[in-house]
Write a structure and sequence with these properties.
The structure is a single chain. The radius of gyration is 43 Å and the shape is rod-shaped. Helices cover 82% and strands 0% of the residues. The N and C termini lie far apart (89 Å). The chain has helices at 7-12, 19-79, 83-172, 184-188. With 197 residues, the chain is mainly alpha-helical. Helix 2 runs antiparallel to helix 3 (83-172). It has a single domain, classed as Helix Hairpins. The chain has 4 helices and no strands. The longest helix has 90 residues, at 83-172.
């Protein structure tokens, strides 16, 4: 089975019937892409940084409560040397290690998002450069399209429309019969018009 073309692909195909039209539309697509794409990346990075920050704050609060529980378990364990109390203290220490590991991962994600946010300046500069080029190509394409093709097609269309309008006016005007050019008296005598002496 061959590759099937999706209906949306037919609509998104750039115009290839005219080079100037192709330049105009392609430049416009590049300009729009350069305007939208960096802002999409920026929004994603802001969401990632906010999620990482919230995770770090939640892990800090969990770590603080776990440390408080460890201190109270150690204080209670020192007071009574029961084996169950030592197990609880050990479990809390394992939990603290797990929290520290998760905190490190969340913090590195947050810092990575911030670093990528700094790199976004470069992306914005590239987008400004390519967007400007796209806008210039689009403007040149539209100008050439109009100057070299469209204005002449408009003149032909205008002339055709004026001709059609003239024909409609002629067709809608009542036809007036022209009077005969020969005298009526000669017709009364039985002469055939146009058959001179």
């Amino acid at each position: 089975m061959g590759i099937q073309e999706l209906p949306a692909m037919k609509e998104l195909a750039p115009p290839t019937d005219n080079l100037y039209k192709f330049l105009a539309v392609s430049g416009l697509i590049v300009f729009i892409f350069c305007f939208v794409y960096p802002f999409q990346i920026y929004q994603d990075l802001v969401r990632q940084a906010a999620a990482g920050d919230q995770e770090v704050v939640a892990l800090r609060a969990e770590d603080d409560s776990n440390n408080a529980a460890i201190k109270s378990a150690e204080a209670a364990g020192a007071a009574s040397a029961l084996p169950g109390k030592a197990d609880a203290s050990e479990r809390l220490r394992e939990k603290r290690d797990d929290i520290a590991r998760r905190w490190t991962i969340a913090r590195s994600r947050y810092q990575f998002a911030l670093l990528r946010k700094e790199d976004l300046r470069v992306i914005f500069l590239w987008a400004i450069g390519y967007g400007t080029c796209g806008l210039m190509v689009s403007g040149t394409g539209f100008w050439l399209w109009y100057a070299r093709l469209q204005q002449y097609q408009d003149m032909v269309a205008k002339a055709d429309a004026e001709e059609a309008l003239r024909r409609m006016r002629e067709a809608s005007e009542p036809r007036v019969h022209e009077p005969p050019t020969e005298p009526i008296a000669s017709l009364a005598l039985g002469e055939v018009p146009g058959s001179g002496p």
